[in-house]
Amino acid sequence: MASATATSSYAASAGATSSNYPAISSTNNNVVPKFSEYRSRVMLGDLPQDFLRIQFTQAQIYNPAVQGMRQVYSPVQLQQQLYHNPNFLGYFTLTIAEAKLVKNAGLLGLIKMDPYVSFRIGHVAYDTPIASGGGKNPQWKASYRINLFKGMDRIHLEVYDQRNFTEDSFIGESEIVIPHEVMEGETRQHWYPLMGRQASANENQGDILVIMSFLSVRAANHPAMASSTETPVVNPNENANIPTGHAATSLPNQSAMMTEQQQQQQQQQHQQPIGEHSPSAVPKPPPPPYSLEDVRTIEEMFPTVDRRIITDLLDKHHGNKDLVVNHLLQNIA
């Protein structure tokens, strides 16, 4: 009797509880979708090109012109900007040739070092290639052409030994002031000492050979341009040079006299026998665009190279010593 009463009361309470919630129907949005509905959402066939790709709006697309970012310039435009920059001095060529180190900083002193040079001039920094197995006598022969501006008057060099599993080991450093002779156009090579950083190791760690040259912006832009466009003309009656711009007004009959002189010279040349020419008629070869001092300087840098090879390279590069030095460094092991 008691159990029947409890059962009826539980059923009544369950019915009351179920009546408080909405009935489950297919039209209710909160109802979990059936398998058929999941099946209808599956994408079958070829995937579209924009599948799993982020679609940017027009406002999100990068536009350097609108956002004021840096504009891309052509090499000609960059050169023009350099020439118009009052702080631009010219082109500085730096060659890191080789080094002679005092001790082997390799692992336990048994493995040969793999040295390289890290140098900085102004805000410009470079790392040379690694001289694998160079030991105490590494050779790099690496040349760099740097745009030199005012205030870039010294070079800071640091030599490191490359390590594979630990931090690169510091060997020595050097602070080099660009010589005044280099800024005047000379090519200089010199051995500079490498010093340690610590107080106990603040001693000479070796020497490094550096070659420097400089080409001013004026020489690079106008190598052989004359300062005036007027050509002097000799007056046969007076020992004076008169510019061609004023010849027509000062000497009205000068063109006629010059024509007569040319005719007389042609007649004299026809009267001379074949094989004999006037010394003035034979054009003299232009002088070479370099001096003997330039040849000697390159010979001191490369004593094993024949002088004829050096002169041929100077003729080929129109006297540009920097190009000759770079050519020899790249082709001589």
Keywords:
single chain, 333 residues, alpha+beta, Immunoglobulin-like, Helicase, Ruva Protein, domain 3, 4-stranded antiparallel beta sheet, extended, disordered N terminus
Question: Can you characterise this structure?
Answer:
Strand 2 and strand 3 (124-127) form a beta hairpin. With 333 residues, the chain is an alpha+beta fold. It has 11 helices and 10 strands. Among the domains are: 80-221, C2 domain (Immunoglobulin-like, Sandwich); 232-268, no CATH class; 292-331, Helicase, Ruva Protein, domain 3 (Orthogonal Bundle). Helix content is 30%, strand content 24%. The model is unreliable at 1-27, 66-70, 223-256 and 274-279 (pLDDT under 50). The strands form 3 sheets. It has a 4-stranded antiparallel β-sheet with strand order 4-1-8-7. It is extended, with a radius of gyration of 42 Å.
Brief rundown of the structure:
This protein is α+β, with helices and mostly antiparallel strands. It contains 11 helices and 10 strands. 30% of the residues lie in helices and 24% in strands.
